[in-house]
Amino acid sequence: MFDRYQAGEQAVLVHLDFPDETTREDLNEFKMLVSSAGVNELTVVSGKRNTPHPKYFVGSGKAEEIAEAVKLFDANVILFNHSLTPSQEKNIEALCQCRVVDRTTLILDIFAQRARTHEGKLQVELAQLRHISSRLIRGWTHLERQKGGIGLRGPGETQLETDRRLLRERMINIRKRLEKVEVQRQQGRRARSRAELPTLSLVGYTNAGKSTLFNLLTKAEVYAADQLFATLDPTLRRIELEGVGRVILADTVGFIRHLPHDLVAAFKATLTETREAELLLHVVDIADDRRTENIDEVQHVLTEIEAGDVPQLVICNKIDNLENIEPRIDRDDNGMPIRVWVSAQENLGMALLFEALAERLGTQVVNHLLAIPPNEGKLRGELYKLNCIKQEHYDDAGFCHLDIKLPVREWNRLLKTEYTDIEKFVEG
């Protein structure tokens, strides 16, 4: 029933060029998708059309060519770089006697392979069920009618109706479980909000280098690879920014051209971190020939998930793949950083990135001289954790005199914790 397949399958790839940019796909990106899915590419059948053919998507002559390629190369799956209707899939399978998988199903399968967390697996399964619900009839053509014969006559469901009912029940069950996960996420966000910790969210086209940059900034060990959708499950880490203090950095799933709507809908809960971030770090593979189209696609998806109005800092990554490009900060007319040129792989420009983040997030800084009594050693330890102590000395009475400098945000956070009376220790 599900179009799942094992790594190492042999595939014939089908790609058509259309004059309309909204339906045009990139062949090189498709080949990366196929490689990411663990499928072996045998050959590519390509062509040009003004509009899709209603029966085969490709023309009838091209469909025959695909059938011949399947026999010639002994392929066991046909992968289309386009979204097909259920009837088109059924017609091509009947003609070629070979399983057909379209672009949407391929992306869903890659997501299913990458999902690691319970929430990620549920989201992918929900998207798969939504997609496959319109394609059930293909697998049950021999059971479309109600059964007849002795002991089998009378009212009842067809096999197809049974499967659709089971699918609906499973989707309802998954949605309920995802709602519980979302409640847990909201509790985590409220806790970070009470602590006044701002959230930065890495966004960008798939394979732009987000996870490599995330690992570099946070010293984490998130899986990073030169393949599409290496990251699926969101990861959050806390980092320290000079002049800003502690912030939360979130690594999210990469976007892709014509990302399936079922997938966007399923991952809306995960992408809430992006919607509620204080700043989006839009990572761009600056060496990619289609970087402009990729940026536009990311903006389109951000608008779709209601994050289009969140402030952005563009990070032009992979400058090591270009000639004569050095790390730098581009600023707007007001002197505010808008772009940073770096290479996460080669660790180039990180100091400039931290500088730009500090400027974009930096708020007023407070300077205080504190006289902390001997019985308040825990407060002194908390201030050391914040890395805000400039000087320290003790007087004869055992009082600890501290010269501190920290962002207003961190000072206000202290006032909301058990150290609500910290202001009485301020000298002068």
UniProtKB/TrEMBL annotation:
Mg(2+) binds at S211, T231. GO terms for molecular function: GTP binding; GTPase activity; guanosine tetraphosphate binding; metal ion binding; ribosome binding. The keyword Magnesium applies. Its cofactor is Mg(2+). CDD domains: HflX (cd01878). InterPro entries: EFG_III/V, G_HFLX_dom, GTP-bd, GTP-bd_M, GTPase_HflX, GTPase_HflX_N, GTPase_HflX_N_sf, P-loop_NTPase. GO terms for cellular component: cytoplasm. It holds the Pfam family GTP-bdg_N. It is found in: Cytoplasm. Residues 198-365 form the Hflx-type G domain. GTP binds at residues 204-211, 229-233, 251-254, 317-320, 343-345. Keywords: Cytoplasm, GTP-binding, Magnesium, Metal-binding, Nucleotide-binding. Belongs to the TRAFAC class OBG-HflX-like GTPase superfamily. HflX GTPase family. GTPase that associates with the 50S ribosomal subunit and may have a role during protein synthesis or ribosome biogenesis. PANTHER family: GTP-BINDING PROTEIN 6-RELATED, GTP-BINDING PROTEIN HFLX. Monomer. Associates with the 50S ribosomal subunit. HAMAP family: GTPase_HflX (MF_00900). This is GTPase HflX. It comes from Litorilituus sediminis.
